[in-house]
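Researcher: Next entry in the queue.
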Amino acid sequence: MAQKSYTRKEMIKSNLFIKYYKSIKPIYKFFINGLILYLIWLIFYEFFKNLLFISHIYEYGTVFFRDSLLYGTYFFLKIISFASYVDTTRETLHILGAKAVWVGRGCMGRNLMGLFAGFIVAYPGKLKSKLFFIPIGIFVIFLINIVRIGGLAIILKCCPENLDFNHHILFKYTVYFFIFLMWVFWVKNYSHKK
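Model: Structure for this entry, 194 residues:
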């Protein structure tokens, strides 16, 4: 069956674009939504975060987030009986008797949190369940990252020769695996509920 072609003006006037969008297959909606979210993310990172007012908020938020990870890891290590301390000026966590673990911007998991949230937003499902699941998932990623940083600090103390493998391969893909499990959980339990 041939579909009639519409100009952009006609589509906007009659809301045909919205009707067309609602009629396409969910997998295509997912890819369209994902592309739109990626472009928004890219525009923010390349343009908006460099505006003076936003850059101050962005920097303050980054420092607050990093320090939250450092102190969260400190408390995690304290619970499992490793004496440590945090040096926020150097962005590091120290286990006594070992070298420091530096938590840089790329180690904070923000991009993974954004990717996780973007997947949930882009995938079809009820807004209410998305607003419920996204913060929980981000918090879980935050906790996983605390355990990851603590694990790296312990490895640096007991067997520093294994740090690179654990940092760049084992822990990285473990975090990816948990994010994948949360996505699967979302799709199976929340995405199709009306």
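Model: DSSP finds seven helices and three strands in the chain.
Researcher: Noted, moving on.
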